[in-house]
Design brief:
This protein is α/β, with parallel strands linked by helices. The chain has ten helices and 15 strands. Strand 8, helix 4 and strand 9 form a beta-alpha-beta unit.
Length: 320
């Protein structure tokens, strides 16, 4: 089979398309023929060797993916050969024609959701669900601010919040991105490159501020976020590319809170209820992954460059 292989940490060019053996299925495992693999910023951090847990080399990137169960190992009961699934991690990486996974890492993909969309389910939607429900404990009628509402996680957070009855304010850096954020449910969409947009956000809330902020770039936004919070407001940091200085008094005066969240810390119990919620949303249409760009597997280096560029627009996927 063909797979992307990383033999040394570094820039995108270290990812090479190679011919490797198809993994063999063991007890409790499944082999999935990948139809699409999702690209996430976390993949790029791992590729550089800059993530907290460096993958052992040689390594095939990819956490998100979707495809069809090719075969199952002894003891597997929840899925069977021929089932359409989306991946929630794997044992061998999803940037490949086949991936080996635990039975518990493959989840049913509804017929109405394409494989390309399925490759954008796990990281974006589990991150958004966990941020809003397990950390912020967001409630209907509260107001949510999503920085970067046109990217994979931003779209997911917008859809999850709208389905629960929240008012959503989103930001995006391009006209195309703002149109997408509005189409996917944001009540108000602002340009985060415009001077004074924070004041406009507060004005949109009648001066009260926002109850919850999902923050994807804390090193740029966190200091200003705290000044936009409503009383007892919460910020959930799910992305940052550096250090940031904040004034604790902005939190103190509001009885506010900042949560730091990493998807990989999700407990087994949280995973069960998260995937149950995602399954329901995918089935009833409230959750609708948006694919912004499809590239062939060989163009993984290009995908890694694009996923880190400003102006996010939906999910980037690789097609074997």
């Amino acid at each position: 089979m063909k797979a992307i292989i990383v033999r040394e940490f570094g820039d995108p060019h270290v990812m090479k398309l190679e011919e490797v053996p198809v993994p063999k299925v063991g007890p409790g495992q499944v082999l999935v023929r990948i139809k699409a693999a999702g690209v996430n910023p976390a993949d790029t951090y791992a590729r550089t060797g800059g993530s907290a847990a460096k993958p052992p080399l040689p390594w095939t990137p990819g956490t998100d993916g979707a495809g069809v169960i090719e075969s199952v190992g002894a003891g597997v009961k929840r899925v069977k050969a021929g089932d359409r699934v989306y991946m929630a991690r794997s044992l061998s990486g999803t940037y490949a024609e086949y991936t080996l996974a635990l039975e518990t890492q493959a989840y049913a993909l509804p017929e109405k959701i394409s494989f390309a969309q399925g490759a954008g389910v796990f990281v974006p939607y589990a991150t958004a669900w966990r941020a809003l429900n397990h950390f912020a404990r967001a409630r209907p009628a509260e107001t949510l601010l999503v920085h970067g509402a046109s990217g994979g996680v931003g779209i997911a957070a917008t859809q999850v919040a709208r389905a629960s009855g929240m008012t959503v304010i989103g930001t995006a850096g391009t006209d195309k991105g703002r149109e997408l954020a509005a189409r996917e449910g944001a009540h108000h969409v602002l340009d985060h490159a415009t001077k004074g947009y924070q004041e406009e956000i507060v004005r949109l809330t009648g001066g009260r501020g926002v109850d919850v902020i999902v923050e994807l770039l804390a090193n740029v936004n966190l200091g200003a976020d705290l000044k936009m919070l409503a009383p007892r407001g919460r910020v959930v940091v799910i992305g940052s590319r550096g250090e940031v200085t904040v004034n604790p008094r902005d939190l103190m005066g509001r009885d506010g809170a900042i949560y730091g969240m990493l998807l990989w810390n999700m407990s087994d119990e949280d995973a069960v209820n998260t995937h149950a919620a995602l399954a329901a949303g995918l089935q009833n249409g409230t959750l609708r992954p948006v694919v912004g760009l499809e590239l062939p597997l060989a163009k993984a280096p290009e995908a890694h460059r694009k996923v880190m560029e400003p102006g996010a627009y939906g999910k980037i996927v690789l097609v074997p």
